[in-house]
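Lab notebook page, bench 4
Experiment: in silico fold of construct C2
Operator: M.H.
Input chain length: 129 residues
Purpose: comparison with the prior construct
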Amino acid sequence: MDDPVTPNLTEQEMEESVRRVLNPDTIDTSTLLEEEDKLFWTPRYGKDELDPNDDETIAIIRKVYNAQEMAIQDFLKKQKEGKINTQEQVPKQYKQYEKVFSEKASFCFPQERPWDHEIELKPEAISRT
């Protein structure tokens, strides 16, 4: 199965989507999927990583509509060809912060400020992480 792209769905589409809690060891998910459906795995609440052997791992079977699939494919194609202008995608209220997130700024340290100081750690201190 291809790596699925989770589409942005409206509230109504989310309610219409089919959700089932499945144990991947006991249920053959391939029989539940139709050609246009996608299978999304999500870890249970409180866990950071997906564990397919966990009984409480949730599989969400969600219908991806043709229009969504076409929009995703079109976006990926344009992105590959370099036709997507990220400047146009940034909302007006965030334009003032653009230089902070620019490619050039990502390789630079911020300007020195009077309140910059070194944090001296005690040599006998034990890390809690």
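Observations: The chain has one domain: 11-107. The longest helix spans residues 66-81.
Next step: discuss at group meeting.
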